[in-house]
Amino acid sequence: MTAQVITANALVEGDVVYLGGDECWVRQLRDARVFSDPEAAKAALGVAHARDHEVVGVYLADVRLERGVPQPTHFREAFRQTGPSNKFHGKQADYAEQRDVSL
């Protein structure tokens, strides 16, 4: 099985969130719980779907581990990490600054 994380959007803010190791929603992929067992991922996904008062659009996303840190394997997930695409602010500005690039 490919390593996976559970991701969604926070209901109030709309931010991309990931299920963390302590079952709390975290805002950084590096803090997400990584699943390597498909049964554990499926069970956690069911629990996450039931938390519809906190998040919307819950799904599993494939990741690869680089030095133990999850990294997106698909363009969509890499793009989602940068935040809203309508303006250069918030997480987009932080992402560009950290990587010394302009978006």
Summarize the structure in short.
Helices cover 27% and strands 28% of the residues. With 103 residues, it is of the alpha+beta class.
Q: Would you give an account of this structure?
A:
There is one protein chain. The chain is an alpha+beta fold. It has one domain. 27% of the residues lie in helices and 28% in strands. It contains three helices and five strands. The chain has helices at residues 38-49, 75-80, 90-99, and strands at residues 4-10, 16-19, 25-26, 55-66, 69-72. The protein has a five-stranded antiparallel β-sheet with strand order 3-2-1-4-5. The longest helix is centred in the middle third of the chain and has 12 residues, at 38-49. The termini are far apart. The model has no long low-confidence stretch (mean pLDDT 87).
